[in-house]
Amino acid sequence: MKAKNYAIFSVLLSTLLMCFVDGIISPPYLYKSIIKIVLFLLIPMGYFLLYKEKGAYLKKLFIPKKKDFLLALLLGIGVFGIIIIAYFVLRYYIDLNTIKESLTTGIGVTADNFVYVAIYISFVNSLLEEFFFRGYAFLILREESGKKFAYIFSSAMFAFYHVGMTSGWFNILIYILSMLGLFVGGCIFNYLNEKCENIYPSWLVHMCANFGINTIGFILFGVI
């Protein structure tokens, strides 16, 4: 199998499987995290085991550069603010109790363990997703299939990945807008990383977005 075909197929398969796990199986969060590590880390690493000449691509994903980090930080702070403002503006149009119940009954997230889940989501899970969607599905696939395809494919997979976990949370209009927002966000993340040729800028913005989402989670669970 050509390297390009392996990359495309593995991203598509891993995203579909993770969406199925989130939306249909809904295992406890620990098991879901283990499955995600297999799909988003180990399967992509198979690419580098099969195509050893691509190892240089992997190394450069984790070489930090100061270039454009300030832009990423400012964008991250802006994203955090937008998420918090959107929550207060749209909270009467979203069934927050359904979201809370989905998290509790679906994957076992409660007020007692949310702090630990929030820390994992903000730092570890965000890095895992950035490696998979921006490093593997964009920067590396860009070398094999071209920039335009990599932009669209990685951003579409990033949005689709969230379909399962957010199913039933919002009304159809907000749901569609959120998916479009994730697609556009994926394109912005790709742009940030393309300028630096590593995944750290998008990881920084992603962390800030998760800080905002987790702040809302703390509110829902009565932690703050």
What is this structure's SSE topology?
Blueprint (H helix, E strand, L loop, with lengths): L2 H23 L3 H22 L4 H6 L8 H22 L5 H12 L6 H32 L1 H20 L5 H25 L3 H21 L4
Offer a concise description of the structure.
With 224 residues, the chain is an all-alpha fold. The protein has one domain (3-220).
If you had to describe this structure to a student in words, what would you say it looks like?
This protein is an all-alpha fold and 224 residues long. The chain has one domain. Helices cover 82% and strands 0% of the residues. The protein is built from nine helices and no strands. The protein has helices spanning 3-25, 29-50, 55-60, 69-90, 96-107, 114-145, 147-166, 172-196, 200-220. The chain starts with a helix and ends with a helix.
Number of strands: 0
- Written as H for each helix and E for each strand, in order along the chain, the element string is HHHHHHHHH
How many helices? The count is 9
Averaging pLDDT over every residue, what do you get?
Answer: 89
Our Rg estimate from Cα atoms comes to 17 Å
User: Level of helix content?
Assistant: over 70%
Strand content: under 5%
Largest sheet: none
Structural class: mainly alpha
Are there runs of 5+ residues with pLDDT below 50, and where?
none
Number of folding domains?
1
Basic shape = globular
Through-space gap between termini: 52 Å
